[in-house]
Design brief:
The protein is mainly β. The protein has a domain at about 15-35 and about 285-360. Helices cover about 0% and strands about 50% of the residues. It contains 1 helix and 30 strands. The protein has one helix spanning about 25; strands at about 1-5, 5-10, 30-35, 40-45, 55-60, 65-70, 75-80, 90-95, 100-105, 115-120, 125, 140-145, 150-155, 160-165, 175, 190-195, 200-205, 210-215, 220-225, 235-245, 250-255, 260-265, 270, 275-285, 295-300, 305-310, 315-320, 330-335, 340-345, 355-360. It has a 5-stranded antiparallel beta sheet with strand order 1-7-6-5-4, with no helix packed on it. The longest helix is centred in the first third of the chain and has 4 residues, at about 25. The two termini are about 25 Å apart.
Length: about 350
């Protein structure tokens, strides 16, 4: 393992409050920035209860490598066996569970994608869903895993139609399709997140290329999710992104505006935006066990900022010191754990990406 020599600093946060006042811990949050050694860009995405962070980084040849960052700040690079090592190819780590098992995917030298699980003993297991295509840019994409080691994701078949899959810790793969999901190229079912009880969320594109979220129980029962106000035209609709242990789902809806939402296990929708969000709208990326949501929003100037929304509806916004302020630069939270720590990345004024962790 290599320590990356992190820079830790108190940052000034700009807050927007809706409802009751923010807690003292929110007003004194600390952000630590980090870079993988030898990386030209570092992208952090997932964080577990202990504060272990996973993501991926880009080298000088524009090849991708996964990484895991311990709470001590020590970083280990991850390269799946068979991963390509040239521009645009490599390994992407996206999700880490309580035990420290990691899920993600890699592209091989033929640009074919395969899912993987990386164990706590350092062993890689490749996941190829039955029926996945073998053309460049196709195949299997693992997105999330729960504490039982079950992985959810999606794959593309020979016709470029997308289907969901589950892979148990024992390697048993089950594929699934949401009823009414389209069955042509770029349509189909996208599995995104799985909770401790085995309930899955994600989204599907119907035959008209309209997006709808879904919830799938561990028994295989589906519920379609359409947020109030979601558009019904091509490339509009509802995207469900993440689910917590209680079954609360967060995601985004697009139509005349782009908003985020929280959907309770009982089916109650709460849509929300962030004051000052511009045409880029609000994107929700993660939810923790308490129901706190994180994500990012775009200002009219096209810069992005992070946000946190508590279960009570209190919203705080923040930006990492050094984040750029132009043309899709800014702060991009990716994951949030049970204690409210957030992992993500920011892009600077030179469009270089750096990892961060925000601890309340």
């Amino acid at each position: 393992m290599t320590n990356n020599g992190n820079l830790t600093s108190k940052v000034c946060l700009a807050f927007l409050m809706i409802g009751t006042a923010l807690s003292a811990s929110e007003r004194t949050a600390t952000i630590t920035t980090f870079n993988v050694p030898n990386a030209t860009n570092t992208f952090a995405y997932g964080i577990n209860a202990a504060g272990t962070i996973v993501g991926y980084w880009l080298d000088s040849k524009n090849a991708y490598h996964g990484f895991v960052r311990a709470t001590s700040g020590a970083i280990t690079s991850l390269d799946a066996p068979g991963a390509g090592a040239t521009a645009g190819l490599g390994t992407y780590a996206l999700s880490v569970n309580t035990a420290g098992e990691i899920a993600g995917y890699y592209s091989d030298s033929a640009s074919i994608y395969h899912g993987f699980v990386y164990s706590t003993t350092g062993a890689f297991t490749t996941i190829d869903a039955p029926g996945s295509g073998s053309a460049p840019g196709k195949n299997t994409f693992a997105q999330s895993l729960n504490d039982s080691g079950t992985v959810v994701g999606y794959f593309q078949d020979v016709n470029a139609t997308t289907h969901g899959f589950l892979c148990t810790s024992g390697g048993v793969i089950t594929t699934f399709d949401v009823p009414n999901a389209g069955q042509t190229e770029s349509q189909g079912t996208f599995g995104e997140s799985i909770n401790a009880g085995g309930t899955v969320t994600g989204y599907y594109a119907d035959q008209f290329f309209v997006y709808h979220g879904f919830r799938m129980t561990s028994a295989g029962a589906f519920t379609s999710i359409d947020a109030p106000g979601a558009g019904a035209g091509p490339d509009q609709g509802t995207i469900a992104a993440a689910i917590n242990k209680a079954g609360t789902i967060t995601g985004n809806s697009s139509g005349t505006t782009t908003e985020a939402f929280v959907l309770s296990s009982a089916g109650t929708f709460t849509s929300f935006s962030v004051t000052g969000a511009g045409s880029l709208g609000v994107t929700s990326t993660a939810i923790n066990q308490a129901g706190t949501v994180t994500g990012y929003y775009g200002l009219a100037s096209t810069a992005y900022h992070g946000f946190i929304r508590t279960p009570a509806g209190v919203v705080a916004t923040f930006g990492v010191t050094g984040a750029g302020t132009k043309n899709y630069q800014g702060t991009f939270p990716g994951g949030i754990n049970q204690t409210g720590s957030i992992a993500g990345f920011y892009t600077d004024s030179s469009n270089k990406a750096h990892g961060f962790v925000r601890i309340p």
